[in-house]
């Protein structure tokens, strides 16, 4: 029943969905880097075009994508306003009492908007929308695998992530049930001082923790019964294998990065 | 007289979102004062949703919920007083225990009612007795009790509010026969001593036949049958149509009738069946001898 | 002659002090001797606290017995010489499904969860794939392979949990009150699945329950009370002694209670009564012969 629209896996079977999750993580990282390297009109135009291209390729309905941006709309507006009013420059556009708006401010504001938009689209199109959480954790585990040499508990970390993902909906549901049960005994979570409100949370938190511990214990037993003994000697059903397509995408992302760096270095692209 | 009445109640989860689900569809029902009313239906038939409407935990999307003839949503600010009058024991209520002692946990409801310490203590003892909880357990931590004891402590927590209507959502789920009987006995005792109206949701037709005066059958978000135990269990075909059974003993009797043994109709407890069959055997013996 | 699947000898168990609320060192099991042959379908009945769940947990070493012997497939699993690998072998052979369907599913996708056991066993990827598909087919959950477990019904979750064990190719499966938290439909789904595993796959089944109607479907019922085996026999034999069952805090199926009640009234009803059909036949026979 819970509609957490932002970044939930949305299966469409597009090329993006079929990319290797490890490749997707690397591409997403490169994309984020690009969005910070780009400083001129050409760069931002390319970013914007590529973001739109990603949406089209993912075949996720535009409405769903735009809804996912809604929660950050406020942040975007805020950064825009701050940039418009606080950026100082040479070309004054509006001058009224203490308000000075410069062309540079507008320019910055638009670029910041594009940057945030591109960041969200890049992350959600490459990762959350097109990759199941389990694929993501799996990919992170494998990408970080070399760290095992340094005794970093990579597998354990990934296992914890998986279990957390599995149990978050269960615990959310449980919290609602406990709240309802305590309300039925006259609990009041909405009135009174801050302290009394904090106190009113105890009847929710104690049962919730008790239940989480009980679940953890039972799950641990069940896992042991299924012969779980850590990452050693463990195989995976879905072996990840890079394919030609993954390399093409990676190459594309690298070229984009190189291009952005080149633009900055040689001063190509229109700057104000 | 109707203690609780639902008039054309609709309930829709996530209205206006793509996840919209109609959980209750034009539900009208009536619970008579002082009776034990059973609600039966499969998971997803809407009965758990319905139960949460009775004490105002959720608000109907349309329609009214009447308690003693008065709309419980007429003064939403005063909803807490409705919850003290309609005590709801949710499914697996033991998961709501949180206090350091059983005593304090049972006292949570009465404390929220703003009662005096003496009154609270009195009610805690009374409720513990109704629920069949050994007074020696009152000073234990609720987390140290056995499963059945925890359940009884949680139910005592509701009984301590002395509700006029006691609603129990599958109070015996997961318990063994002893645990189940203890809880159902406690429910009956509470009703006898306090004159309260009891509403009980259960999957066990046998328990329903033993304890209920009236039965309400829910299926596909609607009320499909409502009437006395006898009326409802005699309509076994309709029950079967919504995937529900009649008590085993009732089906034994109807199959005996089909084989030419004229046991009385509308039997749904073992005792009645024994009585009826004993009479039949005696009659036949007599007519022969 | 083949070794029995499970054999226990004078099995005792007491919880130690660290387990609060269980009483001090009260033995939960007091000398259980039980032999379960390969391919049997056995229901273990008992009220809560009778020791039935403890017994199940000993069989794959979730708990270790205080004293006594347990032989699984002829091998003494209580021996000192048991290595970690031996324990894994045991748990693969004797799979266990628990009560709460939520607390035994690990992964966020059904098929990933079913793969969890075989993955732990280090089985090659292609074979895991085949086993997962086979196991999901068997419990009738193939179409849900890509679903998220928390959106399934209780009965479906429990079937996924069963598939997770099946994928490890067990020889024996223990169901530790696996239907206690389910509604009647879910219970039916699970019991049907259990019966199918026993009948079609020849898996030895041990189901722990306090639902009489479920126990009635087994070939053999063992009643445990106060840490000891109280009754051991076919459903017919067990249900024909309602007084003993009631004293052990258990129910009697209504049809058996009816026959018992009529006998008490002096009506002569010869024979065993294990099922509704037998009950009806017995009464009809007696009535016509009056």
Topology:
The complex is a heterotrimer of chains A (272), B (289) and C (290).
Chain A: H1 15-18, H2 21-37, H3 41-58, H4 62-86, E1 92-96, E2 99-102, H5 103-128, H6 133-143, H7 154-184, H8 194-200, H9 202-225, H10 244-266
Antiparallel strand pairs in A: 1-2
Chain B: E1 2-13, E2 21-32, E3 36-40, H1 47-54, E4 62-67, E5 70-71, H2 79-85, E6 86-89, H3 102-112, H4 117-130, H5 147-159, E7 165-169, H6 177-194, E8 197-201, H7 205-211, E9 214-219, E10 222-228, H8 229-233, H9 236-241, H10 248-258, H11 270-288
Parallel strand pairs in B: 3-8, 3-9, 6-7, 7-8
Antiparallel strand pairs in B: 1-2, 1-4, 4-5, 9-10
Helix pairs in contact in B: 3-4, 3-5, 4-5, 5-6
Chain C: E1 6-14, E2 27-36, E3 41-45, H1 52-59, E4 67-72, E5 75-76, H2 84-93, E6 94-97, H3 110-120, H4 125-138, H5 154-166, E7 172-176, H6 184-201, E8 204-209, H7 212-215, E9 220-225, E10 228-233, H8 235-239, H9 242-247, H10 254-264, H11 276-289
Parallel strand pairs in C: 3-8, 3-9, 6-7, 7-8
Antiparallel strand pairs in C: 1-2, 1-4, 4-5, 9-10
Helix pairs in contact in C: 3-4, 3-5, 4-5, 5-6, 10-11
């Amino acid at each position: 029943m819970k509609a957490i629209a932002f970044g939930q896996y949305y299966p469409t079977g597009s090329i993006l969905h079929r990319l290797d999750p490890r490749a997707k993580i690397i591409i997403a990282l490169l994309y984020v880097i690009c969005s910070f390297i780009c400083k001129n009109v050409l760069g931002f135009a390319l970013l914007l075009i590529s973001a739109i291209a990603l949406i089209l390729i993912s075949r996720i309905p535009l409405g769903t994508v735009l809804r996912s941006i809604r929660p950050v709309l406020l942040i975007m507006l805020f950064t825009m306003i701050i940039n418009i009013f606080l950026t100082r420059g040479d070309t004054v556009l509006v001058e009224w009492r203490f308000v000075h708006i410069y062309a540079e401010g507008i320019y910055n504001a638009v670029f910041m908007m594009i940057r945030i938009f591109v960041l969200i689209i890049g992350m959600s199109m490459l990762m959350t929308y097109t990759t199941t959480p389990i694929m993501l954790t799996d990919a992170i585990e494998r990408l970080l695998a070399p760290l095992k040499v340094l005794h970093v508990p990579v597998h354990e970390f990934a296992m914890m992530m998986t279990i957390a993902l599995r149990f978050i909906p269960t615990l959310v549901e449980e919290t609602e049930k406990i709240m309802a049960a305590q309300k039925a005994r006259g609990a009041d979570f909405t009135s009174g001082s801050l302290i009394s409100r904090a106190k009113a949370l105890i009847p929710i938190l104690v049962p919730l923790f008790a239940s989480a511990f009980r679940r953890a214990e039972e799950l641990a037993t069940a896992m042991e019964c299924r012969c779980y003994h850590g990452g050693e000697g463990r195989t995976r059903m879905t072996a990840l294998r890079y394919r030609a397509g993954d390399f093409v995408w990676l190459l594309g992302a690298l070229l984009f990065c190189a291009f952005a760096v080149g633009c900055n270095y040689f001063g190509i692209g229109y700057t104000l | 007289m109707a203690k609780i009445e639902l008039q054309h109640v609709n309930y829709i989860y996530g209205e206006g979102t793509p996840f919209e689900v109609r959980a209750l569809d034009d539900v009208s029902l009536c619970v008579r004062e002082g009776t034990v009313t059973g609600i039966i239906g499969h998971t997803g038939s809407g009965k758990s949703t319905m139960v949460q409407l009775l004490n105002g935990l959720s608000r109907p999307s349309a329609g009214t919920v009447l308690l003693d003839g008065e709309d419980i949503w007429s003064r939403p600010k005063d909803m807490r007083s409705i919850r003290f009058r309609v005590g709801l024991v949710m499914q697996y209520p033991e998961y709501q225990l949180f206090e350091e002692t059983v005593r304090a946990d049972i006292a949570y409801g009465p404390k929220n009612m703003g009662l005096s310490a003496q009154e609270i203590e009195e009610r805690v003892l009374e409720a513990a007795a109704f629920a069949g909880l050994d007074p020696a357990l009152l000073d234990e931590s609720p987390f140290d009790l056995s499963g059945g004891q925890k359940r009884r402590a949680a139910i005592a927590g509701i009984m301590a509010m002395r509700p006029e209507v006691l609603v129990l959502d599958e109070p015996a789920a997961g318990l063994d026969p002893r645990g189940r009987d203890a809880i159902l006995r406690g429910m009956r005792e509470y009703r006898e001593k306090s004159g309260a109206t009891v509403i009980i949701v259960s999957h066990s037709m046998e328990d329903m036949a033993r304890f209920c005066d009236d039965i309400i059958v829910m299926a596909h978000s609607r009320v499909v049958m409502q009437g006395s135990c006898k009326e409802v269990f005699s309509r076994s075909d309709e029950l079967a149509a919504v995937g529900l059974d009649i008590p085993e003993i009732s089906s034994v009797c109807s199959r005996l009738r089909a084989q030419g043994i004229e046991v009385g109709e509308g039997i749904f407890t073992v005792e009645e069946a024994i009585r009826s069959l004993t009479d039949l055997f005696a009659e036949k013996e007599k007519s022969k001898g | 002659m083949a070794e029995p699947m499970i054999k226990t000898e004078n099995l005792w168990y007491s919880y130690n002090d660290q387990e609060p609320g269980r009483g001090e060192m009260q033995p939960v099991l007091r000398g259980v001797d039980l032999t379960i042959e390969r391919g049997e379908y056995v229901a273990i009945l008992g009220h809560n606290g009778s020791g039935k769940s403890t017994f199940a947990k000993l069989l794959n070493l979730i708990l270790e017995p205080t004293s006594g012997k347990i032989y699984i497939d002829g091998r003494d699993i209580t021996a000192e010489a048991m290595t970690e690998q031996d324990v894994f072998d045991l748990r693969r052979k004797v799979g266990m499904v628990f009560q709460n369907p939520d607390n035994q599913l690990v992964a966020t996708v059904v098929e990933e969860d079913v793969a969890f056991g075989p993955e732990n066993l280090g089985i090659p990827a292609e074979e895991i794939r085949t086993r997962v598909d086979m196991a999901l087919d068997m419990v009738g959950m193939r179409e849900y392979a890509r679903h998220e477990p928390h959106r399934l019904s209780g009965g479906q979750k429990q079937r996924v949990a069963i598939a997770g064990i099946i994928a490890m190719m067990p020889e024996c499966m223990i169901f530790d009150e696996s239907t206690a938290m389910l509604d009647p439909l879910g219970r039916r789904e699970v019991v049907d699945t259990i019966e199918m595993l026993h009948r079609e796959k020849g898996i030895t089944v041990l189901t722990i329950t306090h639902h009489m109607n479920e126990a009635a479907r087994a070939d053999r019922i063992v009643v445990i009370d106060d840490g000891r085996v109280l009754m051991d026999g076919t459903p017919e034999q067990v249900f024909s002694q309602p007084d003993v069952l009631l004293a052990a805090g258990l129910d009697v199926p209504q049809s058996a209670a009816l026959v018992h009640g009529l006998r008490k009234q002096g009506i002569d009803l010869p024979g065993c009564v294990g099922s509704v059909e037998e009950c009806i036949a017995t009464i009809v026979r007696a009535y016509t012969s009056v």
